[in-house]
Amino acid sequence: MTTQLSIDRNHTGVLIMDYQNTVVDFVQSGQAELLGRAASVLSGARRAGIPVIHVVVSFRGGYPEISPRNKIFSGLVKASGMLQEGTEGAAIHPRVAPQSGDVVVNRRRVGGFFNTELETVLKSMDITSLVMFGIATSGVVLSTLRSASDADYEIVVLADCCADFDEEVHRVLTQKIFPSQATVVNAQDFLHALRRG
User: How high is the mean pLDDT of the chain?
Assistant: First the structure.
């Protein structure tokens, strides 16, 4: 992917989504490289003065937020006891841990916008353009991208900082679906755009 990308530093925010210990552990192939690329993106954004926002998912003990009608969370998360607030599994991976000035937004559903403070944070920072990536491509990235697009944000997806449990699904989304609503590039394209100013 080679695209001449332009970044408006004054109105751009970076969303890193679900880079939590339990979720990262599901990435079987290329985990270290994925974390390395993500860490480079965050470092580059911070150096450029671009806000970094961590979007994470976690639940209270007993999972009162998860209805048995919620297929995704009741089956995968609640049944296995994953992603409870305050647990090591729900913590953000140390390779991409929040630093001073970063914002952490917690959510209880798949998408980053639904019933969270994300929109308020973005508006208060005058952010109109989002550079986003996360795990999984077919989960938080897809849902958050759709909501962001409907809210008229300009969107950049860093494809090689996203991962999915199905590589073919990741490929179809990043190559066929996302380009209709976002500019899809790789981490190095974003970092090169920052260096160009």
Answer: 95
Contact 157, 132 (CB under 8 A): yes
Helices (H), the chain: 21-25, 31-47, 71-72, 118-124, 142-150, 167-172, 187-196
Nearest to 52 by CA among 107, 6, 102: 102
Provide DSSP, 58-85.
-B-TT-TT--TT-HHIIIIIITTT--BT
For helices 187-196 and 31-47, the axis angle rounded to 10 degrees is: 20
Over its C-alpha atoms, the chain yields an Rg (Å, rounded) of 16
For 116-127, the pLDDT digits (tens) are: 999 999 999 999
The domains found in the chain, sorted by start residue, are 9-196 (3.40.50.850)
- DSSP, collapsed to helix, strand or coil, labels residue 50 as coil
59, amino acid identity: F
Q: What is the pLDDT of residues 44-55, one digit of tens each?
A: 999 999 999 999
